[in-house]
Amino acid sequence: MKILSVLAFASIIVISILLNSCSCFLCSKQDNGVVPQAILDKTDNFIIQRTGKDFFERFIKPDFIKTKYSAPYYNMVYRFIMSDKSYVNVLITFSVDTLGNIVGNRDITGIPDCQNSDCSFSINEDSAIKIAKESGLPKGIKDWKISFIWDSKYNQYVWNILSTNSASGSSMGFRGNGKMIIIDANTGLVLSMNDWNVK
Fold it and tell me: Do residues 114 and 50 lie in contact, with contact meaning Cβ atoms separated by under 8 Å?
């Protein structure tokens, strides 16, 4: 009888663990950003309106690990990758409600407008560095910080290059200054060159 009781007790524990595991797995799937197909269709189409269907299907995919539901919104994340241009590996982000409607008062970042402008991103890092040198960006005291990023001010992808004139760190945090140049990643046009300063 004791053996049967022990076996029965062990069976109850195993079943309980399995049930809890299933529950946690479902929660994990939701936390990882799994969204209803109807909403996903709407968010796909929102991007396609700007990029075109062919461009979207070739280079843009949902990132379900980074996509999250935070009531009452789905914070959508897509990954934009062009395999022949290693520097084009960036995120597209925006939010929708539970009906799939875009939340207009939240940031919409990273969607290139390929319907009205070039989306070849033909200016690579070497070309951007050459343009920065020719435009007089100072060499500075350390290597330039070079980034292919989405610039919300210009609503497009740019090369952002930082030159550092001075830099120091203390218990108060980082301090430094220098110059920053922003270059159109499609045309190579210098959009701006300004001072930056962190105090």
Answer: yes
Per residue, the 3-state secondary structure of the chain, as one string, reads CHHHHHHHHHHHHHHHHHHHHHHHHHHHHHHCCCCCHHHHHHHHHHHHHHHCHHHHHHHEEECCCCCEEECCEEEEEEEEEECCEEEEEEEEEEEECCCCCECCCCCCECCCCCCCCCCCCCCCHHHHHHHHHHCCCCCCCCCCEEEEEEECCCCEEEEEEEEEEEEEEECCEEEEEEEEEEEECCCCCEEEEEEEEEC
Output the CATH code of domain 125-198.
3.10.450
Domain boundaries, the chain: 29-117, 125-198
The pTM for the full model equals 0.80
pLDDT tens-place string over residues 152-173? 999 999 999 999 999 887 667 7
